[in-house]
Amino acid sequence: MPGWHVPMMNDRPRNQAYEAAIKRAVSGTHVLDIGTGAGLLSLMAARSGARAVTTCEMVRTVAGRAQEIVQKNGFAERITVVARKSTDVRIGVEMAARADVLISEILSSDLLGEEALPSIEDAKARLIKPGARIIPAASALRGMIVGGRTLELQSHVGTV
């Protein structure tokens, strides 16, 4: 796993919040997990009673490792790891039908990285049922205007 997965895997409050939300939403459902990484959220969904989980990861080596982790945890029968970008996943090919629940952790610190918004919008249009539960269901972004001479010297080229 890439090193940046480690802090997320060790973030107990974050993982407890995800698991609580997943437990409330997935019993008996088909779950789509976008950006599986190590497969943590997919494993939570399977452990919480999801009937099936389709999880996609666009980095092939990471998807391969997720598949190994799924197998070692005994969930290979219920979790299908797809080594492709969610926007390339097709109903009838990688997924038998639209999912009931969408879970993802593709939110970078600015909410706009990792193509989170386009990926979720695409999933809503093609990969999940109308009215499907989405975890997380909402997010907030806060910003602050900053300036000053130091910032100006770092971001503006004056007369040369």
Structure overview:
The protein is an alpha/beta fold and 160 residues long. The protein has a single domain, classed as Vaccinia Virus protein VP39 (Rossmann fold). The chain has 6 helices and 5 strands; from the N terminus they run ααβαβαββαβα. The chain has helices spanning 5-9, 12-25, 40-47, 60-72, 116-126, 149-155, and strands spanning 30-34, 52-56, 79-82, 99-104, 128-135. The protein has a 5-stranded parallel beta sheet with strand order 3-2-1-4-5, sandwiched between helices. The longest helix has 14 residues, at 12-25. The model has no long low-confidence stretch (mean pLDDT 87).
The strand line-up of the biggest sheet is: 3-2-1-4-5
- CATH topology value: Rossmann fold
Proportion of residues in helical segments: 25-40%
**Largest sheet, described in full?**
5 strands, parallel
Average pLDDT confidence is 87
Beta strand count: 5
CATH-scheme architecture = 3-Layer(aba) Sandwich
Whole-number tally of structural domains? 1
* Low-pLDDT regions: none
| Order of H and E elements | HHEHEHEEHEH
* Count of helical regions: 6
Broad shape: elongated
Q: How much strand content do the residues show?
A: 15-25%
Broad structural category: alpha/beta
Please identify the top-level CATH class.
Answer: Alpha Beta
Instruction: Calculate Rg over CA atoms.
Output: 18 Å
Query: What's the CATH H-level homologous superfamily?
Result: Vaccinia Virus protein VP39
Distance separating the two termini: 46 Å
Key terms for this structure?
160 residues; 36% helix; 5 strands; Rossmann fold; 6 helices; alpha/beta; 5-stranded parallel β-sheet
